[in-house]
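Re: export button greyed out
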Amino acid sequence: MTVSTEHADSAAAGSLRKWLLTPEPKGWFQSSAQQVHQGWLKFSRHPLGLAGLAIIVLLVLVALAAPLLTIYDPIVQDMAGRLAPPSAAHWLGTDNFGRDVFSRVIYGARTTLYIIMLVTIIVAPLGLLIGTCSGYFGGIVDEILMRITDIFLSFPGLVLALGFAAALGPGITNAIIAISLTAWPPIARLARAETLSLRKADFIAAVRLQGATPMAIITRHILPMCIPSVIVRVTLNMAGIIITAAGLGFLGLGAQPPWPEWGAMAATGREFMLDSPWVIAAPGIAIALVSLAFNLVGDALRDVLDPRGSE
Amino acid sequence: MASADLTSKRDTDSSSKQGAFADVAPHPLLALLRRLAGRGVAIVTTLLGLLFLTFSMGRLLPADPVLAITGPEVSKAVYDRVYEELGLGRPIWMQFLTYVRRVATGDLGTAATTGQPILTDLLTIFPATIELAIIAMIIGAVVGVPLGITAAVRRGTIIDHIARIIALAGHSVPIFWTGLMALFIFYAKLKLVGASGRVDVFYEGLVTPMTGFLLIDSAMQGQWDVFQSALGHIILPGAILGYYSVAYISRMSRSFMLEQLGQEYIITARAKGLGTRTVVWRHAFRNIRVQLLTIMALTFGGLLEGAVLIETVFGWPGLGQYLTRGLQMNDMNVVMGSVLTIGVVFLTINILSDFLYRILDPRTR
Amino acid sequence: MTPSLIDIRNLEIAFGGGAVRAVRGISFSLGQEKLGIVGESGSGKSTVGRAIMKLLPPTAIVKAERMNFRDVDLMKAGERKMMTIRGRRIGLILQDPKYSLNPVMRIGEQIAETYRFHHAGASARQTYQQALDMLEAVKIRDPERVARLYPHEISGGMGQRVMIAMMLIAEPEVLIADEPTSALDVTVRLEILALLDELVARRNLGLIFISHDLNLVRNFCDRVLIMYAGRVVEVVEARDLDKAEHPYTQGLLASLPSIENPPARLPILKRDPAWLDDIALEQPR
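Workaround output, generated via the alternate export path:
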């Protein structure tokens, strides 16, 4: 009985490998899968990139499994045990409200993950659409869209986010909106640059002669070609987005107390920094680690997906 | 980091389809004027757009601006009157024009905390931020450019790795945290530097502000103990901002230099017999000088950003702290006025650097 | 027999840690003559030119029994020694002046630089005059005006003249020209070749002319070296080219179209894998 299932397992694994490596893929799905596989092989030759990826995976796991990793509630206060240094009971000590710092860092990962996901979902499509339309249509459309992009770019990122977050009011949703407003212009610029060079390609002319509408050309032919470099740029910019989000949290915008957010934790811990440095050390290191991870992954992805743009 | 390439549309495609007839070609002066006018229009529209952004930020505020003035208990008649006065009934574009007019005349509202016109406040405190920014820029350029270039020339060696680590840390560690940790180590534990503010409390007001830069003013007036205190206070925030500048500038310098070193003219230069130092500084560097200028402008924008957080951490009485204090006090006029100021300053710097780029690069003349 | 200016024996060049063998044991010598090195892309011909000047990237692995320039052992020469040779005793002309000239330096300055570097005591006026003289020597009219221009303001033909001027101003003994006319229009090509011919003859230079254009080389050079896959497969006097023995050379010659005697069908070169193993040694002169 065992022998045949083992055979079946290894046969299944063997046939998957064959499917991924066969030189003549049938159909779009198989060839896409093969491309991803090739890309993965290339990526896995970058040890630093793999380390970064591991950290990101860890972030996701930690965020999802937060209740399993700590018995302490991140919100419940315990004034008797406030500002306790790290010990066996509280791995990273407690903050000024007696809350376990480790648990707050773990739950704070959820906040960070939430922000990352939402900003990406908003910014990538928005930037791609604006950039490709601007590049493809040219003329007045390009002028207007690029002028708008320039206007948003005439503020440093944090300052613009600050302005909008302050205007919209505190809260994590408003912070996400504010950050998204500062994060889309570089993507739009990038997409536009790629579109400009693709616009003159023969295959675009061919599709147009076949009668494709401009939107069809953009969405089905140009946009997919822009995706690799956009992925790289979004990953690299993610580090900055996390830091901006933390900065907003530090200034009291973003996720509101008592909900744990790494930047806000650093702000509240500031008063007690001199005697209880662990309260701000932990969230800061968490921010740095996650940003670093995205930087490393982004660098490795650039080598895999977009070697022209790399050093 | 933001990049403001104001002429994002490179007109390589719309090449002049002028015929070969020399007498139909436009007079060069006219062409220049036309180009300048085009640039001017672009700048004005960007500026207006910037103003519209801050205007819309102001309009987004959930608080009712009428109630903010009158208080919550108010009769309909008074409410309507204030509503009219504030022009809230008028169409958006008219409100925007009023806003533009107000800003153009320097009326940014009044600060709730100081009671002063915001513009006056800004003019008083801006030099403090500039002083910080200048120190950081000097550190960034003096350390960052040679570091980046050396990392490129000696690619793969230990100095390249060090530069990489410095740059990575600069892009990963949040600046407010670095500030806090640095305060903890250098002030709390080692007692090496001063606490918050620009000088120790009992030196405040001793030096008459002439340039607004404490270091220069105190040196000029021979108040060396004030100078020392000021130095001790500026060194940590300046160094931290400087570090982040080094991280960015060195990365970009390295990238630019690597790009140049792969070019054919470098081989030509070496074929002439020139040594590495000459090739790097007389040939390659000349090609990246102008790009570095743009980088400096962008660095300045990043410094304005970083200053917001660093000034808050170090209690440095500059634009950044003004902004965050306004945020804490819910003084939206202060917040919006500061954001607007930062935007205008950043935009100006980018316009200037774009302009200088055009002048200095022989290829774009 | 004229003493050789450059003497190379069994030169091997590999990249990528030894994985890619660009040059696999070639030998030749150069006298005061025009030697053409002909080969397709990837044959290793450009690599040879740069190897002589030791301008290959540091990752390149260069081995040779002998690589001498007159009495200088180039293999053993350190960077300092090479700096006295490059530009001053051996010159290198690159293919495309759009890329091989420094875009932000004026032309006059780039030419003068070679002179100034190798003549330490020269005054600014003297250097400037030398540069102008050199511009005249490469038949550029109005040298004062051109000296003030930037490379993007001049044509390709003029750019190559500038390149030649830059490399001849310090009066070297050998000139290596790496595809000097490949980036030029056909009409300009002949002018540049004529210029090179004259300068080489007048200054008694040895010239290594690297090209992929067999027709051009056979009409311009005295001797021709055919390279294939990193090896020399044939060495022959230009006038004796029709009597070439190696099937690769014969194949190349056969595939050249001719206006006078157009063949019914233009033959296609058939590559024999055995050519990858053949070694043809230079016949000592």
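Residues 280-285 of chain C have pLDDT under 50 and may be disordered. The button fix ships in the next patch.
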